[in-house]
Amino acid sequence: LWQQMRTAPVALVDLPKAVRVKRRVSEYAGIDHQRLVEATERIRKRLGGKITKDALDALAHRDYVTVADLTLDYYDKAYLHGLSQRNGSHTHAIAMQEDCPSQTAQRLIDWANERST
Question: How confident is the chain (117 residues) per 10-residue block, as mean pLDDT?
């Protein structure tokens, strides 16, 4: 199973960063504030001192856009590192301009169907 997962095609849904920031704000701004502070502290080592400080300062001011922007860089690096461990010819970017789950799902279905024919 692990080998099949490692060699399976991967669809990388590529949204503009501004769209992804907006999505993260809508998902996380309603979470208990202290939990967000704690979560940011947990990734301090990976974010680095300055970015962690900037993110915590932004959290203190309830500036979730800045927090999302700063932490997305960390998550992007982690995700792309994982992808780099795979065969690049098996990774397929699917560019989307809007955060519309139904449109994205349809594009992924179309992509999967194209691969199976």
Answer: 85 94 90 93 93 96 95 88 82 93 95 86
